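FORM 12-B: Structure-to-Sequence Request
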């Protein structure tokens, strides 16, 4: 409700009524069904800091990606594997949760601008990498074990027998 002076008199008007007295309900056009947020029923959401620029952004609006990387690059991994005493040692991975503001996510191409028709599509994007047959459940490649080299004149290598 707000006041309007009309010929010296003060009258109260509803925001849903025009000055002529007709009723109208004006809503702004929406670009997205969820207004670009995932808040749904919550009045306020805590802010997070962008991983790239440290900008404050609401947690439900931020673009979140879970990054799993090897701690060691591929060439160093090969050197470690050759120098290691253990045959099947799995190197630890680096697990990072990246949270981007909209500007950084678009700039670094984490998400892309879509046309009005494509924005209607709310299905999650298809998985980029199909599962490979040559990998086991952990994701490590399955390698065949090489037999130990035979040295002439040396005693044969016998595997230890497990006793219960």
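FORM 12-B RESPONSE
SEQUENCE OUT:
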């Amino acid at each position: 409700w707000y006041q309007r002076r009309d010929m010296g008199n003060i009258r109260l008007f509803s925001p849903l009524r025009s000055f002529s007295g007709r009723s109208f309900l004006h809503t702004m056009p929406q670009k997205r069904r969820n207004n670009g947020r995932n808040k749904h029923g919550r009045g306020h959401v805590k802010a997070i800091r962008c991983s790239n620029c440290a900008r404050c952004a609401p947690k439900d609006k931020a673009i979140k990606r879970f990054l799993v990387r090897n701690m060691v690059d591929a060439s160093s991994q090969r050197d470690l594997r050759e120098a290691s005493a253990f045959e099947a040692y799995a190197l630890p991975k680096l697990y990072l949760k990246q949270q981007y503001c909209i500007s950084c996510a678009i700039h670094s191409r984490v998400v892309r601008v879509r046309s009005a028709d494509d924005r209607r599509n709310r299905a999650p994007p298809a998985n980029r990498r199909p599962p490979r047959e040559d990998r086991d459940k952990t994701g490590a490649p399955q390698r065949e074990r090489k037999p130990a080299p035979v040295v002439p004149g040396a005693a044969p290598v016998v595997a230890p027998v497990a006793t219960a």
